[in-house]
Amino acid sequence: MRLKDPFSLKAADMTKRTNKPRKPRDEESSDEVSGLTCQHVSKAVDLSSVKKSVLSNVWVVCSECLKERTMIDEEPAASHDILVCLKCGFQGCNQSGVQHSEKHHQAFNPESHCITISLSTWKAWCYECNEELSTHCNKKALAQTLDFLQKHSVKATSGNVFLNTAKS
């Protein structure tokens, strides 16, 4: 098999600094969604807000169930498929009947509070596109937020993080 000589390419196809062929780029830089493009990532992911919220709230507990003192099987509604809003860090449950995560999405600007990450599966979901998102795509913010949440989870579950449980 014969490879095309990079020096035979046109100057427009070459990068200036390396003289290597330029990789084709999508017109719109956003995350791939099962072959589609999710345009909500740039508006719906705010790592600094997520960090602030996660570090100041109880970890892996639905904020609304905590306020309402919702119990499931005589346990606080914790770790029952908690989703984190990537705009503000709200932790909401994804339980049928309650759906605090979806209610949060609907209560605020839907386009900016539409992307969540499940703390049990680490999968990202866009409510507006109604699709799972790949976290290893063009937008670094999505992958960086996932990385932060996973590292925080390890610290929190190993007892290195003190949880703020004094909520009024």
UniProtKB/TrEMBL annotation:
<dbReference type="GO" id="GO:0008270">
    <property type="term" value="F:zinc ion binding"/>
</dbReference>
<feature type="domain" description="UBP-type">
    <location>
        <begin position="36"/>
        <end position="153"/>
    </location>
</feature>
<keyword id="KW-0862">Zinc</keyword>
<feature type="region of interest" description="Disordered">
    <location>
        <begin position="1"/>
        <end position="34"/>
    </location>
</feature>
<protein>
    <recommendedName>
        <fullName>UBP-type domain-containing protein</fullName>
    </recommendedName>
</protein>
<keyword id="KW-0479">Metal-binding</keyword>
<keyword id="KW-0863">Zinc-finger</keyword>
<dbReference type="Pfam" id="PF02148">
    <property type="entry name" value="zf-UBP"/>
</dbReference>
<dbReference type="InterPro" id="IPR013083">
    <property type="entry name" value="Znf_RING/FYVE/PHD"/>
</dbReference>
<keyword id="KW-0833">Ubl conjugation pathway</keyword>
<dbReference type="InterPro" id="IPR001607">
    <property type="entry name" value="Znf_UBP"/>
</dbReference>
